Amino acid sequence: MTLRIATWNVNSVRQRLGHLKDFTDSHQPDVLCLQETKVQNSEFPEHDIKSMGYKTVLFHGQKSYNGVAILCKKEIEINNQLIWCKKDDCRHLSITLKDGVQIHNFYVPSGGAIPDPEQNDKFAHKLQFIKEMTKWISDPAQKNEKLVIVGDLNVAPLVNDVWNHKKIQKSVGHTPLECDLMEKLREAGNLTDVGRHFVSADQPLYSWWGYRYKPSFVKNYGWRLDHILTTESLKSALQHFEIVKDTRGWEKPSDHVPSIVDLNL
DNA sequence: ATGACACGATTGTCGTGA
C-alpha cells in the first residue's frame, strides 16, 4: 500500500480553498498537513474541506496568526496536540494511523528579523522550540516509532537550500546557528531528510519564494523552509518525493508550495 | 540594501511573516 503525505504552508486556509481543492484533485494526498491556517477553530472551513474528500479534518488554530491542520482520507487511531515552549500557540498536531505510522505536523516560529536571542525574543523562541523538538525526538519512545515529521520548520539548513548562501547567511532562517540546530535535530532522531534523500545536496531545492521581491519566483530566489523527516524504521519505505512548484505560479498563491512523500508500507 | 507584498483584524493602519 502506498501512503501519500503532503505538507503545505497555505498562508490562510480561507484564502486558499480553491488551491487546496485543485492540489487535492491533481495530487491525491492521503494526508495533507497545513500550516499558517490563520483562523480560529470556530471559523475553520471544515465543510468545504470535507467536500474535497477528506474524511477527518483536525485543526488547531487561533485568530490571525499561526494555526495547523491535518486533512486525512484514512481512518485515524489517535490524534494529539503538544505544547511547545510552554505556549499553546497552535504550532503542532499529530495523528496515528491504523498501521502505527505517526504524522507530526509542525509550524516552527519564524524568529523575527534580528538573529540574536539577546535582542530578539522571537529568535530566542525559535531556538528554544527547535531544542525542545530535539529533546523530544531523542527519546527512544519517539525515535523507535514509525514517525513522519513534516511542516514549515522555518530553517533552510543546507548551502543549496537557499538561492545565495553567502548573501543569506546573516538572515534569520539560514544562520549557522539555526542550520546547526537543525542538523542536531536530525541526528538526535536519526532522521532522514526526505528531500535530500531524493535530491542530492549539490542541487538547489526550494519550497518558499518571498512576496516582497516581486520577481523572486521567476528568478528562482527561493529557500527550502518546508521539510519532511522520517525515523529509521520508515527509511526503506521511502518511494517518492516531490515539491509541487507549480502552485507558486497560480493566481494569488501562498508564498510556500507543497512537498509530497510516498511511503510504501 | 531588509524597502518592495500578503494576510487578518480593523476602518486606518498595524503586527506579522522570513
Automatic annotation (TrEMBL):
NCBIfam families: exoDNase_III, xth. This is Exodeoxyribonuclease III. The keyword Magnesium applies. The gene is xth. It comes from Kiloniella antarctica. Belongs to the DNA repair enzymes AP/ExoA family. Keywords: Hydrolase, Magnesium, Metal-binding. SUPFAM superfamilies: DNase I-like (SSF56219). GO terms for molecular function: double-stranded DNA 3'-5' DNA exonuclease activity. Signal peptide: none annotated.
